[in-house]
Design brief:
The complex is a heterodimer.
Chain A (H helix, E strand, L loop, with lengths): L2 H6 L2 H7 L13 H5 L9 E6 L8 E9 L2 E9 L12 H4 L1 H6 L8 E3 L7 E2 L2 H18 L1 E4 L5 E11 L6 H14 L1 E5 L5
Parallel strand pairs in A: 7-8
Antiparallel strand pairs in A: 1-2, 2-3, 4-5, 6-7
Chain B lengths: L4 H4 L5 H8 L5 E3 L5 H5 L2 E3 L6 H14 L5 H7 L23 E2 L4 E2 L17 H6 L31 H9 L4 H8 L3 H13 L9 E3 L1 H4 L4 H14 L10 E3 L8 H4 L6 E2 L3 E2 L8 H8 L11 H13 L23 H9 L5 E5 L3 H4 L3 H8 L4 E6 L8 H4 L1 H5 L10 E6 L8 E4 L4 E5 L12 H15 L9 H4 L7 E2 L6 E2 L1 H9 L1 E2 L18 E2 L34 E2 L27 E4 L4 E4 L77 E2 L21 E6 L15 H6 L4 E4 L1 H7 L6 E5 L4 E8 L6 E3 L2 E3 L1 E5 L20 E2 L11 E7 L5 H15 L16 H5 L27
Parallel strand pairs in B: 1-2, 5-6, 9-10, 10-11, 22-28, 23-25
Antiparallel strand pairs in B: 3-4, 7-8, 12-13, 13-18, 14-15, 16-17, 19-20, 21-29, 22-30, 24-25, 24-30, 26-27
Helix pairs in contact in B: 4-8, 4-9, 4-11, 15-17
Classes of the chains: A alpha+beta, B alpha/beta.
The complex binds iron/sulfur cluster.
Iron/sulfur cluster sits at the interface of chains A and B.
EC number (chain B): 1.17.1.9
Main location (chain B): other
Family (chain B): Belongs to the prokaryotic molybdopterin-containing oxidoreductase family.
């Protein structure tokens, strides 16, 4: 590099002589920063989603790419099209990539036996089957055909559920439908809290 | 009020800032100076739990200075309706309304009825409360026998018209009273009044925003009623820039109320059937009056369509559409009652589906002791949360109250799929459904709730396939044939198919329905949630509408889909004057187009499309056809907004200031100290701090309140595990004023502990002028504030703030009073292990806390027969006798 090239590559020189007078764009770039790419550049696709935290309902763009380990979420950005959020996300919404990709996420069914002091693994179909037996048992133990006056109740007080405010409408629909058919009435969620 | 919007709903708050930039004035009335206050034009601190006194003061200011928007009030509210002669107000009963039964702690609402209105079907009032009856009206008003023929006085001068009753009821809510009760200076109060009332009339509106700072009180519904009364008096409902906006705190908490996982509701705010409903006809009659106005009159169409979706072919006219398959409720089956039942050994299995009550529900200890006494517990979550590991990390391990080796609860942890690994809709805070596309598949055993419930149901049905037990018929006959995607034994059910069935289908053609108005009660339509009918109108998933905001007008009807019928402003007929013209050019939203003979505008009109403004129904007509042209409140039984609620609110037809369950102050307005209808549970494991007239309150002299931080989310399960968020807010802290710090010897950044009769909780001290001591009725009251997101798990841990709270509920909603309690605060860390239990016991001893503390809810100096208020009350011999603590009842059934 000659001296004049060297001077010209000096950011202050570029800032004073170029169009970027405030030094916030091209003037401040280095060869290194020029080579950088947004992490969204490698995305195979972008899908539309909604922030899973509060009820403002900010719109998200989810960038998905893949490597040897399979498909991965590369980044989650605010969606500028949304009339609700105009592309903005708060710290929680901005952290939702970490929420879905972090190593805090459990991948396996875990089981703690009565009086147990540790978790143990269980395969998913077995766990579901064991659970189904227990649901029927608890239902039977809490079953009430009628009230004291002989009026039909057709219910069980043996099974309770809490949760729904973080779930999809379709999921809540099936939860309420299944539990109602089982006769379980103590079905609740955060809206009561 | 009751909201820290900049902190808890930050991206939504950009619109407040946008409005401010365009000249709107932003007032923040809240106990603490917060991020919202910092951006407001004015912050007015008030004592937590005193909001109704403040709002009542505003109502009084409006009415005594004739500042209401009279044309709106007369035409669109029930201001002119006459209330029956038997009604007696709190003015005359020392804080009780007529109809109070001290034995049950509930109201019989029959004396609150309109004149000429038919008496309300006598639904036994206690059960009404136990079933959280107030909350069942989430998409419209409670029933009236008749919506027409109610006596009115258009001059608003009749002493029994709602307008005059309102005037009398609030006359004692003077600026002086506001100052003494709330700690708000006269100048500040009047400044708020001036600003609020100036945003009224044809040209101006004001919006009112609240959050759980209002709902989580023993009279939370009445806080909201008080706010709504102001907004109605000022003509701010149904108009652009107006409204009462509830900001909700979870991605789909609105959805989980609309399509409820709640004990007292079926989808679309249809109530759960009660043991007294012998058949569907009984049930429908209990929802709507034979002659009432509006769309709730068609309740039969909604329930039959739901039953057809639930039981398909098995539901026929001959078998009453299998109404008998629905389980019946007959009391309180809410989450707090259920937890107590767990401790009492009456509940055997518990599902936690994306919720962490060990940290997130009031009285965490009660929650954890309940979980420790089950046969089995299922936890479905993204990560390991406290509720799944209570058997090894609950605070009760340290005190020896829970020991893993002795805890019998079998725990199943199922990892959940995240929001990007499944598709489906969330309903956000303004009733808008937004569809999420699936970005990728979950890993390992991670599955959606849709998958989990669908396959659990399938396996249960298989296990019972040969059963002949009548009890199993509802499960075996269930329509459980949702489309699935993928192969194998465990394919993913299709959320799209579920949404289609929620929307509803014409069973004769198989076509998707366009609107709830197409639903029928003859079994030819099936729809899972009538208010969501139309989300799939024309066979298009409108929740997936994503036209960019730059490509449509600011109403943005092409983004998502809001129930009902994609209307963005509810009751928007009220944005036009009685003649159907916009109140003003700049506040124009919908209007009557006389040429085309229909309502039109920027939003979808929330009114029968072709009913002209001047239309008057015949006397005795019913349903949507009975709505007059100036009845904008189309889900109300009389078409009007209710300043006075003749039914549907179980703790009074008008908001009344009562002190919180735990308070350092006597009620300065009435002898009745706390809400007389609040739900209390006097149990050893649920003690209350004393409040006047009980003694001992000085042991817990400070007002406690808690709330959120931007950087964490509720019980922390989705935030304390994230490095970014944990770094931003690494530790639990407690905010105190410099004066309180001096009084108690607290040092900034040092440890302190907060104490109630339930728990003691460690936190770092933050001494800040954000907390301001309040001067109340000649004394200084300090408030203490804590964020509540911490627990023993996660990258950052801390004590569980919710452990400080007890369980006392709003009788309308069965929501706990967690926004206000009393406490003590001391420097240094709390004792540990058994010493902690002794420390708390000593506090209770000093305060004289027993199982009865706080359970004697009636303190009004009135006679029981006055309160019953039959028209011929004479109550011989009882004059001057007081219904005192001894004379009332302990309302906890198991105590
Ligand atoms: S980004 Fe923040 S404000 Fe927006 S929905 Fe998520 S949590 Fe709420």
């Amino acid at each position: 590099m000659g001296v004049s090239d060297w001077i010209r590559s000096w950011p202050v020189y570029r800032q004073l002589t170029g169009a970027d007078r405030l030094g916030r764009g091209d003037a401040a770039a280095s060869p290194q920063s020029r080579e950088r790419e947004p992490r969204t550049a490698d995305a195979d696709r972008v899908t539309a989603s909604v922030c899973p935290y509060c009820a403002v309902g900010c719109s998200q763009n989810v960038y998905v790419g893949s490597d040897d380990g399979g498909e991965r979420v590369l980044q989650i950005e605010g969606n500028p099209d949304s009339p609700i959020s105009r592309g903005r996300l708060c710290p929680k919404g901005s952290a939702s990539k970490q929420l879905v990709t972090g190593d805090h996420r459990e991948e396996r069914v875990l089981y703690r036996a009565p009086y147990g002091t540790e978790w143990q693994e269980l395969d998913l179909p077995t766990a579901l089957d064991m659970l189904a037996d227990r649901v029927l048992d608890a239902r039977r133990k809490g079953w009430q055909d009628t009230d004291a006056d002989g009026k039909p109740l057709r219910r069980t007080q043996g099974i309770a559920s809490l949760g729904g405010a973080t779930l999809d409408n379709e999921e809540n629909y099936l939860i309420k439908k299944l539990f109602t058919a089982l006769g379980a009435v103590q079905i609740e969620n955060q809206a009561r809290i | 009020m009751g909201s820290n919007m900049a902190e808890a709903h930050p991206v939504g708050f950009q619109w407040v800032m946008e409005a401010k930039a365009r000249g709107a004035k932003v007032l923040h009335i809240d106990p603490r100076f917060t991020r919202t206050s910092a951006l407001a034009d004015k912050h007015v601190p008030l004592r937590a739990g005193s909001d109704i006194a403040f709002l009542g003061g505003v109502i009084n200011h409006i009415l005594s200075n004739d500042l209401d928007f009279r044309e709106y009030v007369r035409a669109y509210t029930n201001a002119s309706f006459l209330v029956g002669e038997e009604f007696v107000d709190t003015e005359d009963l020392d804080g009780l309304f007529s109809g109070y039964d001290p034995e049950t702690g509930t109201y019989d609402t029959s004396t609150w009825q309109y004149e000429n209105g038919f008496p309300e079907d006598s639904v036994e009032s206690e059960r009404h409360r136990e079933q959280s009856a107030g909350e069942q009206h989430g998409s419209g008003g409670p029933k009236l026998e008749s919506g027409t023929g109610i006596a009115t006085d258009q001059t608003l001068e009749h002493p029994r018209c709602v307008f005059q009753i309102l005037k009398r009821h609030f006359s004692r809510y003077t600026p002086e009273m506001v100052e003494r009760i709330c700690g708000v200076s006269r100048e500040d109060f009047l400044e708020v009044c001036r600003a609020w009332t100036s945003a009224s009339g044809r040209e101006h509106t004001a919006a009112l925003v609240y959050s759980v700072g209002w709902t989580q009180h023993s009279m939370g519904a009445q806080y909201i009623r008080a706010g709504a009364i102001i907004q109605l008096l000022l003509g701010n409902i149904g108009r652009p820039g107006g409204g009462v906006l509830a900001l909700r705190g979870h991605a789909s908490i609105q959805g989980s109320t609309d399509i409820p996982t709640l004990y007292n509701l079926l989808p679309g705010y249809l109530p759960m059937p009660d043991a007294r409903h012998a058949d569907k006809r009984d049930y429908v009659e209990s929802i709507r009056g034979t002659h009432q106005k509006g769309y709730w009159h068609n309740a039969d169409d909604y329930i039959v369509s739901l039953l057809k979706e639930y039981w398909g072919e098995a539901a026929t006219e001959e078998n009453d559409y299998r109404f008998d398959y629905l389980p019946r409720i007959d009391g309180d089956h809410g989450t707090y009652r259920t937890v107590m039942d767990m401790i009492d050994g009456k509940v055997f299995g518990y599902f936690l589906l994306g919720q962490n009550p060990a940290v997130g529900s009031a009285h965490g200890r009660l929650q954890r002791l309940g979980m420790a006494n089950l046969d089995w517990l299922v936890v479905r979550d993204l990560t390991m949360i406290e509720s799944a590991e209570f058997w090894r990390n609950a605070p009760e391990i340290e005190t020896g109250e829970i020991t893993a080796e002795q805890c019998r609860t079998e725990v199943f942890f199922f990892p959940a799929a995240s929001h990007v690994e499944k598709e489906g809709t969330f309903t956000q805070t303004q009733r808008m459904l937004q569809w999420r596309d699936r970005a990728l598949e979950p890993r390992g055993d991670q599955r959606s709730e849709l998958w989990f419930i669908y396959h659990l149901g399938r396996i249960l049905r298989r296990k019972l396939a040969t059963s002949t037990d009548e009890r199993d018929r509802p499960l075996l006959d269930l329509a459980w044939d949702y489309r699935t995607e993928g192969d194998g034994e465990f394919p993913e059910p299709s959320a799209d198919d579920v949404l289609r069935r929620i929307n509803g289908v014409d069973l004769t053609t198989g076509e998707l329905l366009d609107s709830y108005q197409q639903l029928t009660s003859d079994g030819t339509t099936a729809a899972g949630c009538w208010i969501y009918s139309g989300v799939y109108a024309g066979g298009v998933n409108h929740a997936r509408n994503r036209t960019a905001r730059t490509e449509q007008d600011e109403t943005a009807l092409e983004w998502g889909w809001a129930w009902p019928a994609n209307r963005r402003v509810l009751y928007n007929r009220a944005s036009a004057d009685p003649q159907g013209r916009p109140w003003s050019e700049r506040k124009k939203l919908v209007w009557w187009d006389a040429e085309r003979g229909e309502w039109t505008g920027h939003d979808v009109p929330d009114f029968p499309k072709t009913t002209p403004p001047e239309f008057e129904p015949e006397y005795g007509e019913a349903g949507p056809g009975a709505l007059a042209g100036d009845d904008p409140f189309i889900m109300q039984a009389d078409g009007k907004a209710w300043l006075f609620a003749p039914s549907g609110v179980v703790d009074g037809p008008l908001p009344t200031h009562y002190e919180p369950h735990e308070s350092p102050m006597p009620n300065l307005l009435y002898g009745q100290q706390g809400s007389p209808a609040r739900k209390v549970y006097g149990r050893e494991d649920n003690p209350s701090n004393p409040a006047p007239p009980e003694g001992g309150g000085d042991v817990f002299p400070f007002v406690f309140t808690a709330a959120r931080l931007t950087e964490h989310h509720t019980a922390g399960g989705m935030s304390r595990q994230l490095a970014y968020l944990s770094e931003l807010q690494p530790a639990l802290f407690v905010e105190v004023s410099p004066q309180l710090a001096a009084e108690r010897g607290l040092e900034n950044l040092d440890w302190a502990h907060v104490v109630t009769s339930r728990a003691a909780v460690d936190a770092r001290v933050l001494v800040t002028e954000r907390m301001r001591p309040l001067r109340l009725d000649g004394r200084v009251v300090h408030q203490v504030w804590m964020p509540y997101h911490w627990g023993p798990s996660g990258k950052v841990d801390g004590d569980v703030v919710n452990d400080l709270l007890g369980v006392v509920l709003d009788p309308n909603t069965m929501i706990q009073e967690s926004k206000v309690a009393t406490c003590d605060i001391r420097p240094g860390r709390r004792p540990r292990g058994c010493e902690l239990l002794e420390y708390l016991a000593e506090y209770r001893r000093r305060a004289g806390v027993t199982v009865e503390t706080g359970t004697h809810v009636v303190t009004a100096h009135t006679t029981a027969s006055d309160a019953a208020a039959t028209s011929d009350t004479t109550a011989p011999g009882s004059t001057g006798s007081h219904t005192t603590a001894q004379g009332t009842t302990d309302r906890e059934e198991d105590a």
